Amino acid sequence: MVSPHMGSLPTDNHNHRTGSHLMDSHRPHMGNHHGGCSHHSMDSRPRSDGPLPVVLAIIVGTLILACGGCFAAIFLVTFNSPPAIVAKQYYNAIKSQDYARAYSYLDPNNEITFGGRSQQITQQAFTQAAQAYDATKGKVSDFSITSVDLNYSDTGNTGHVTVRVTRNGNAYEVHLELRQEGNDWKIISFDDL
Fold first, then answer.
1. What is the pLDDT of residue 114?
2. SS3 breakdown of the chain: % helix, strand, coil, rounded to 5?
3. Is 51 exposed, middle or buried (0-12, 13-18, 19+ CB in 10 A)?
4. 158 exposure class (CB count in 10 Å sphere: 0-12, 13-18, 19+)
5. Residue 105 sits in which domain range?
6. Would you say residue 57 lies in a domain?
7. What is the block-wise mean pLDDT of the chain (193 residues), using blocks of 10 residues?
8. What tens digit of pLDDT does each residue of 31-55 get?
9. Contact assessment for residue 74 and residue 46, using Cβ atoms and an 8 Å cutoff
């Protein structure tokens, strides 16, 4: 049988099925076997250029994972650094209105800047200021650490922690400056309560 579009086809129905590119088991596959018609071979396996693409993909994937891991590690270390932990403990104490404990995180030997004024602060003065702040602004209902900046140097280790504090549904930022004193970190300045 002859098709006007395909040229002459083999007449052996046992070894040829119309529209199929199956070869009989006795003839080797030599590309186009349909007398000049341009058909593509069924062998559509992707060509491999050797192991190079696989090796490159593994290297790139490993680098991406390593960089992601480094960023995660830096994030975890920074937000779980001693200055961040002290800031969390300080605000947990203020939130629970435990002003004596909150005061214990302050450096009493330095002047504290509060409300734009620098002054030597005592536990009693701090407690009175915190109680007055709670009465006028509301108690701390929530807080979160939004940034931590650490500076380790020969002259002393310091940290700057920004805390987002919420009182009566109103959020604002507080900037704490901390300094390492022996094994402890103490708050040496804050711009709000």
1. 64
2. 30, 30, 40
3. exposed
4. middle
5. 78-190
6. no
7. 47 47 46 48 58 74 63 54 96 97 90 69 88 95 96 94 97 96 93 89
8. 444 444 445 555 555 555 667 777 7
9. no
Q: Are the C-beta atoms of 120 and 107 separated by less than 8 Å?
A: no
Q: pTM value?
A: 0.60
Q: Which amino acid is at 113?
A: T
Angle at 83 between CA 79 and CA 89, to 5 degrees: 90
Q: Which amino acid is at 170?
A: N
Structural domain includes residue 3: no
> Which one, of 91, 71, 80, lies nearest residue 143 by Cα?
91
The helix (H) or strand (E) run that includes residue 5 is none
Q: From residue 161, give the alpha-carbon distance in Å to each of 40, 90, 93, 174.
A: 67, 12, 17, 8
In the chain, the number of structural domains is 1
Q: State the DSSP code for 87.
A: H
Q: What is the CATH number of the domain that holds 109?
A: 3.10.450.50
Q: Which helix (H) or strand (E) holds 174?
A: strand 170-181
Q: Is residue 1 part of a domain?
A: no
Asked, for residue 71, whether it belongs to a domain, the answer is: no
